[in-house]
Amino acid sequence: MGASIGRQNAAVADLKARADAEVNAMAASETAAHREAAAALDQAQQQAQALSDAPIDPNAGCAGAIRWGNAQAAELSSW
């Protein structure tokens, strides 16, 4: 009976070690995903700010905005 208990304890310890390794791997993956999301958010905020600060003549209406967009097309398409 003592041998069976020893085998079961070893099996439980092995399961715990594998579960702990999975938890650590998931935590590392979550941290990496958080960093990527933060970088994407920062880039999107910078792009939004650039658009908000765009020098479009407020009196030119839609036509002025279209002219500005056409002039900036190369840069805007790189986003």
How does this structure look, described?
This protein is mainly alpha-helical and about 80 residues long. It has one domain. About 85% of the residues lie in helices and about 0% in strands. The longest helix has about 50 residues, at about 1-50. The protein is rod-shaped and about 90 Å long.
- End-to-end Cα distance, whole Å, is 68 Å
Low-confidence blocks of residues: none
Give the total of beta strands: 0
The share of residues in helices is over 70%
Q: How many structural domains in the coordinates?
A: 1
Q: Output the structural class.
A: mainly alpha
Please state roughly what percent of the residues sit in beta strands, choosing from under 5%, 5-15%, 15-25%, 25-35%, 35-45% or over 45%.
Answer: under 5%
Largest sheet: none
> Would you tell me the overall average pLDDT?
90
Helix and strand run = HHH
Question: Which geometry do the CA atoms define?
Answer: rod-shaped
Number of helices: 3
Gyration radius (Cα, Å) is 28 Å
